[in-house]
Design goal:
Adenine-n6-DNA-methyltransferase TaqI, Chain A, domain 2; alpha+beta; 4-stranded antiparallel β-sheet; 22 strands
Length: 669
Amino acid sequence: MQLLEEHFDAAFNAPDGIRKLRELILTLGMQGKLVEQDPSDPPASELLKEIETKKRKLVESKKIKLPRKLPPIDISEVPFDLPPGWEWIRLGELGVINPRNNAEDDLDVGFVSMSMISSDIGVDHSFETRKWKDIKTGFTHIANGDIALAKITPCFENAKSCVFKNLPNGIGAGTTELHVFRNSFGAVEPLYLLNFLKNPKYIADAIPFMTGTAGQRRVPTEYFTQTLFPLPPLPEQRRIVTKIDQLMARCNEIEALRISREHKRQSVHGSALNALLSATEPETFAQAWGFLRAHFGDLHQTPKDIEELRQAVIQLAVMGKLVPQDPSDPPARILIDDINNERQRLISLGKIKSYKPLPNVSVEEMPFQIPQGWEWVRLNTITAISGGITKGRNLTNRKIVELPYLRVANVQRGYLVLSEMKNIELPVDEIEKYILRKGDLLITEGGDWDKVGRTAIWQGEIDTCVHQNHVFKARKILATQNELWLEKFLNSQFCRIYFAGASKQTTNLASINMTQLQNCPIALPPLLEQHRIISRLNHLISLCNKLDKVLKAQTSKQSEILNALMSTLIPSSVPSLQRAPIRSAKLPKAHDSLEGSALPQSEFESLHLESLSALPIKRRGRPAKKTSASLRPAIPSAANEAEAIRMLENMKLERALGTRQNSLFDLED
């Protein structure tokens, strides 16, 4: 226990620390390492004698059947040494397995289904009152004080088990997927046995012995009956149960505290990002960025935080807040004119279809204000959009060829998955119409409502590849256009919201048509600025990826600390006579094991975004709308920045002034 206390914080720093510590508590309890042994306790060997005496009397009075003899315990089965006064016994010798009840048909009794039994420790079962005649056959018999264990997957793996109590008239029946132990000889404290059955180690050891087909695998009755059980003296059993209850209550308190603190931290994180994204003036943007930089380490502690940061950076990029505008850049209007001129030339040559101009983007359609020199355009204004091949056409009497083609599954958000390609037949004279060219944008027509409009760039990965009709193709008009900019914008939150609103939605599915895609509003910067934005964005995304890797490495090292702790306290199961005595091993401190893995936050903190000083005050378009909930990170937010700062400072103060117990989950500063 001293070693456990010394490294309590290290254990809880691991992401699965609470779960592992609960397992550790149960295992130590079953090994006699949670409480002191009392030499005045009657030894368990006396319990074994009492069991035999009571068993013989119950058999003679015909209250139970004569149990079949179980195999003797072999030394090779013994997983660890027992403390003085303990004994090994099989469950089938300790009590009666799967007993039967005798009662009047009209008696009110309890019925317990599997859903009424909890996987958690300390949670009682529920029951329904029924007549005994209705459930006495076809169900498992139970009584107050019986200990039940779910035997079928996944309920067994989830530790569904309980001690029955408060049943009407003391008896009942339940699901047939239970093993039931009746404490007929009074040699075991029911909650002590329940803790043994809920221990993940017991469950893990039993899984290889389950029988049956997938989804219907069960723990055999023979395995349950022959389970090797460490039996302490009865007074010690009660002391162990009390200690486990105390430690589990402590785990519950710390888990609730961790959840509360993480909720506060995420709330501040969400407020900080929202302040950054909603800033419309250089001063407010600088203030929001300064707050994020100052508290970067506190606000970015999980991969989820990094993903939200990554999305915020992309959103800043497409809003023109990532790099300064250069007044010497040719404005986007010139780029649009060049595109229109090239389009007319290609139409005259018959290389693309004639173009019907679409209405200008209205103020109501603009999701944010754009910087000077930018323009709002529709996607069809700056690209040539076309559909793909329809499967199942009648191609009789046509010269056909078989080619690889892209499906919706191949097109992800920002990248392609080409490991599983399929082929399709199409007429030779249609190859030119459907073939993909390097730089083409591929946009999905439908799928889950949040996946409509996924966009990726074709880089010529496969020679002579085409696309099906559920994947749109948007091709640049000018070779000098920046397809990377269009891909980032089409995958941004703004376009996701547009596609979600424009799409036809059925149960969990949605789709867009050609017209809706053509009308998608696009914020178009000057061409030179597009290149600067993409360069800066790639650098920041690279930093996000680096942060993500470091956090995962940090998490792995925290888990190593916990595993080292557990292996020190619970050596590997080996035969008793061969096992070395337990010694207090010196474990690394949490901060020692994380050396060299500090978050590279300084790279982010040292960034001085030029846009802080270069954001133009004059911006065109209607005033920015209140940020849509769907544009914000999907986490609770403080009411305002002042509230966010207050919450963060309170969180830090609590950490500084709190006890060791209420600081377990805080990383070292």
